[in-house]
Each structure stands twice: as structure tokens, then as C-alpha cells.
Amino acid sequence: MKQQPILSNQRVVLLKDIPARDLHKGQVGTIVKKLYSDVYKVKFDYTRSASIEMAVEQHDLLKLHYVSSSSTKEKEKA
Questions:
Q1: 22-68 pLDDT, tens per residue?
Q2: How many domains does one find in the chain?
Q3: DSSP conformation letters of 12-52
Q4: Which InterPro entries does the annotation name (predicted)?
Q5: Is 56 strand, coil or helix?
Q6: For residue 71, what are the CA distances in angstroms to 13, 57, 63, 66?
Q7: What is the extent of the structural domain holding 66?
Q8: Rounded CA gap, 33 and 78, in Å?
Q9: In 3-state terms, what secondary structure has residue 13?
């Protein structure tokens, strides 16, 4: 099954280690832009002043999903 595209500024999790760039599975990044059909430029923050941007294939990323507190409260009422 083909994954849905990820939009700019969405948060993602890295699904594999990338030792050459000192990135680890589970690290959270932000999509900067789509480069090709299944490749994205992702920004990973190390500290407030240090980050790295690199191309990552979509199958190595997991899009994070957030539920707002108002959505949770509405479901509890139902």
C-alpha cells in the first residue's frame, strides 16, 4: 500500500539509524519540503542552536499524529 504524502512542517519519526549523520531510530524531525515523489528534506534538531537537514525516503519516516484535547473531550462525552 502506498503511503500518503507528508506535508511541509509536519513532524516525523526516523525509523532507522543513520550513523554517518549521527541520527538514531526514533529521532523526531520536521519536514522542510518534498524533494521527489517519495523523498523529503527533513530537519533534525540536536539542540536549540544545532540542527541537520538531509534527504530521507518516506519509507524511513513515520508521520506523527496529534489529538487535540478538545477532540479527546468530545469523544469522552459520546
A1: 999 999 999 999 999 899 999 998 777 889 999 999 999 999 988 87
A2: 1
A3: EEE-S-BGGGTB-TT-EEEEEEEEETTEEEEEEESSSS-EE
A4: DUF4926
A5: strand
A6: 23, 31, 19, 10
A7: 11-77
A8: 38
A9: strand
